């Protein structure tokens, strides 16, 4: 499912206009994104949690040239599935 399919499903399920459903989905995604930027953890019971993980710098290799390069430290979003989601997918 992509974002437009999610908007379409919401608009049909809750009898909303496509534009109103799109505003709701955008508000949710924007709020979640801002929380991660602010280094807050997002937990949705039964679904999972989102957090930002810190990765230290390391020496890597350019696969095309074989040259050794330094990969700078970075922060990446991370999702951990909740127990309810894991069990539902495993059925």
TrEMBL record:
MF-aspect GO terms: DNA binding; structural constituent of chromatin
**Cited Pfam families:** Bac_DNA_binding
Q: Which residues form a coiled coil?
A: none
Under the cellular component aspect of Gene Ontology, which terms does the record hold?
Answer: cytosol
UniProt keywords, alphabetically: DNA-binding
Which SUPFAM superfamilies does its entry note?
A: IHF-like DNA-binding proteins
Q: What's this protein's family per the entry?
A: Belongs to the bacterial histone-like protein family.
**What is the protein's given name?**
Integration host factor subunit beta
